[in-house]
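Methods — Computational structure assignment.
A single polypeptide chain was analysed. Its primary sequence is given first, followed by the predicted tertiary structure written as structure tokens.
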Amino acid sequence: MMPTRPLIVHVILDVELSPTERLLLAYLAWRQGANGEAWPSQRTIAKDLGLTCDGVRKIVRRLEAKGKLCVNRPQGGGRGRRIQYTVTTAKPPTAIDPLETEKPPTTDEGLPEETPDSQPKKPPTAKPRHIRRTLQGTQQSKKRTSAKTFTPPTSREVEEYAESLGYTNFHKGQAFIDCYAPRGWRDTKGRPVRDWKAKLRNVWLKDLKKPQRGDPDWLPTEEEANAIYEECANTN
């Protein structure tokens, strides 16, 4: 069984998770007992983290799909039946002892063995001016080409980007894709969509009101999640 504290730190540093997913997973890791199980009710989770029960269920399903959380739901109905949660995040790698770092090979006399990398390097020879100009032009052309490359997003990427901006009530990722993909990613005026994130911000999210804390679709941003971390720490 992994100690709870390293597990919580590992969860918080997991870049595969969104801020709200890390918040809920770290909370469940903190609630785990010695047997690796946590049994808080959805109402308790929602109350402690300032979420709604619908929001908790939504995040739990995401964590299950990503393989970060194992959920054991009891069969049948009835009051008092709680769900069992087990955080399945992999154990973080152990720290490397700085005293055991690799030392350079030595000869029989005890002196460091000379390797090809230790040979003095000759300063690079300056290329003729016309060759330098050709290389610079080729590099600039590659930069312009890479800047123009457009990668169409998926509906999940669209909704996750909207959620990162605080629009957790935006559920039209597929509608966004269907609006531009059939036109070859051109807008209604025929202009190419070079930055889909800017199009989402300036058009689709322009008149949409962000949900506030306590609303059914509200989920905390990274800054709000950090504030909830501090609130939980101060109450314990």
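Note: Confidence is low (pLDDT under 50) at residues 91-101.
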